[in-house]
Specification:
351 residues, alpha+beta, Pnp Oxidase, Chain A
Length: 351
């Protein structure tokens, strides 16, 4: 199976999941419990004060659970990811998704978590955005955090120069809004592929399908015409407005606050969700966030450096560098010039 629930039942069997049955609040409480457990096990919150949805956090907060998510073990994560990138294949498209069981127009029905005291508001931190590449017509998927403004609007954080921002800029130059789809609560293999920065024009969902042994299916959405994973818990579609912005700021993966900035606004058209849905929350700056961001890069570095230099043994993005800023590379030196060449290539691969 290729949905979140199949992964949850997998980690439950090996005691990697804890369930919280008491009522908790989205205001700091969920974040506080998640931070305390940091990484140890995944947590499923069954009763939330502000919402009827359930919520899961810490899904892939350890290398062990990350390994399970890519269909392997802690020791062969990179082999699995590199092979999936090489063998990326298109998923099948089916007419109806499980998420179509319910429909709403209110974003605030979701248990959107307020994580840190000085952030500009609550944020959806696990949202994967799907958009069409204006040059190739192919889809792209990537992570973007969203802050609710009202029942039908979010601010959406986009990094300048990355795929979604390039698609948005193209639409904006034509005076158009950009149609997008968003999923929350998917199999972590889809999240891992979404966190991998594939080349411009390549669709990360094909990598996810390969990680899931070709079992991933997609469903086309009515408004945006975009294809999203059929087993997603929550799906939104709408458009990023080309002429409106909203101020926001948030905690980054180094557990520091970033600068206040104005970000574009997403306007909701449809919100779909499964019966008894499970919302996924990622606590910024903690182990799940860092591994989701850093592990695909660690795989990329292992693949590229081993391909270019046979003397490379292993690359590790360390916890000390938040799995992002610090790489340790083990090599079997042949020439005195090897380390310099390898360091140069590392910086080129992960700026």
């Amino acid at each position: 199976m290729s949905d979140l629930r199949s992964y949850i039942s997998q980690i439950k069997k090996i005691n990697e999941l804890k369930t919280v049955k008491t009522t908790v609040s989205t205001k700091f409480e969920i974040a506080g419990i998640t931070a305390k457990v940091d990484g140890l096990h995944a947590i499923l919150f069954e009763k939330i004060k502000e919402s009827d949805f359930r919520l899961i956090a810490n899904l892939v907060g350890t290398r062990k659970r990350f390994g399970i998510a890519v269909g392997g073990t802690e020791d062969n994560i990179h082999k699995k990811v590199i092979s999936a990138i090489k063998k990326a294949k298109k998923p099948k498209i089916i007419s109806s998704g499980k998420f179509m069981e319910n429909k709403s127009k209110n974003l605030l029905s979701m248990p959107i978590v307020t994580h840190f005291e000085k952030e500009s508001g609550p944020f959806i931190t696990s949202s994967i955005v799907y958009a069409k590449n204006p040059e190739t017509g192919k889809q792209n998927s990537s992570f973007h955090r969203m802050m609710p403004i009202d029942k039908t609007h979010f601010s959406i954080r986009m990094v300048e120069g990355r795929h979604l921002h390039r698609c948005f800029t193209d639409a904006k130059e034509h005076g158009e809004d950009l149609k997008i789809a968003i999923t929350v609560g998917v199999h972590p293999a889809i999240s891992i592929a979404g966190a991998y920065q594939a080349d411009w024009g390549k669709d990360e969902i094909d990598i996810a399908n390969s990680l899931l042994d070709g079992k991933l299916t997609l469903t086309k959405l009515p408004f945006s015409g975009l294809n999203v994973p059929s087993g997603a818990e929550i799906v939104m579609e709408g458009k990023i407005l080309h002429n409106k912005t909203h101020p926001e700021w948030m905690v980054e993966m180094l557990q520091t606050y970033d600068h206040k900035r104005s970000q574009p606004i997403f306007e909701l058209e449809n919100l779909f969700f499964r019966n008894n849905p499970i919302f996924h929350d990622v606590l910024s700056g903690y182990s799940e966030h860092r591994l989701l961001m850093g592990m695909p890069i660690e795989s990329k570095l292992n693949g590229e450096l081993k391909k270019s230099f046979s003397q490379t043994k292993q690359v590790s993005m360390t916890n000390g560098g938040c799995n992002w800023l610090h790489a340790v590379i083990q090599i079997k030196k042949k020439n005195d010039s090897d380390p310099k060449k390898i360091i140069k290539k590392t910086f080129e691969s992960h700026r």
